[in-house]
User: Fold this.
Amino acid sequence: MFRHPRPRRLIRVALTVALAASSLVVTACQSHPNSIFHDNTDWNRDVGFLFDLLIVLGTIIFVFVEGILIYALIRFRRRGAPRQPEHVHGNTTLEILWTIIPAVILVVIAIPTVRTIFRTGAAARADALQVEVVGHQWWWEFRYPQYTTRNPNGRTDTLVTANELYLPLGRTVNFALISKDVVHSFWVPSLAGKRDLVPNHVNYLWFTPDSTSAAAFNGFCVEFCGASHANMRFRAFVVSPEQFQSWTGHQLSSAAFTAAPVAPPATPSAAGAVAQTPPANPPVTPLPATQAGFIAWPQDSLPPHVIPNAPLPADVRFDDALPGVAARGADLLTRGQGACLGCHTIRGNPSMVGTIGPNLTHIATRSTIAGGLFPNDARHLARWIKNSRKMKPGVLMPTIGLNEYDPVVGAAMKVGLTDQQIADIVAYLQALK
Ligand code: CUA
Assistant:
């Protein structure tokens, strides 16, 4: 058959080495920020234990089997004239052994696996932080039903944010996962396993971020959900309990900037709002990293792996030199220009009560826009408002820029906002800390 067994043997050795090397590479992925091999939560430690157990058992079996193979290759290699090997028929002891040993190994794997499945599938502890995750094509809505406030109309408002999740260190968080449209899947690899968001059904997922330091993580949609499935991302920020308390208090406050008066620009509010009322694009102020006064993860100290780097489409042009005036932008939105009020809420601005799109009350505290696709800066925000459909395929948000081509309508928009109007709105949104 095989006249020269050496090449074949070499291939086998090479394949074996490659397999062992790839296992090592997988376990060495600790440095990768989006890997599951981070002991940040009870969930990931449980799953990590199972992974390690399988790797250790697999390695022992691999070394044992390959050892026997190599021994047999050397011990029984062809020497001298070929001869028929001695035939044996049946060995009861051997057969019993090689049935029992794998059975024992499978039991050793199955017991902790089943225990982990039951543990992670059980209900979360009663005092857990509750977060409702609502999947939308293609963005994430996060609601904190335990954090509410009574607004001036006497209505109770729940803390709602978009595409950015804040979690306190050391407290179990219980996610209730639902979808507004199609099936999505919620996954922050560095914190826990994935779980689907199914329309008309609530799934649950809980874990405790109890690593020793605050950190920022990437979250993804991991179930194909349409044209911009790959652009449905979010950020998860694990902060200290004090920072979380401060963040919730700030998120429940009304918008820092209100519509009136238009000119001159509004004076700083007496309510001690963190963002004063700048006339144009406000400078980025480093925020205190600890306790009171914390309103968001400081934009200038984001780890590189959570900063988006999607390219801007070349055919969405905007004059970045236009000076935007926040008060004018607020007035435009309040009067319904650009129809933003049809979809977005800005708590504190009585005209802005739409609920189809992300809540924008504190949009300036977020590090990204467009479902985590672009950084939240004036350059990206202006182009996003002007022609989001060129920025993110399939997005529901209509094209707002005057004379901009809308790929869904199939024509240029005869009604829309000028670059100056968009610059004003951008200035307003950037004041909404
Ligand atoms: Cu949502 Cu994929």
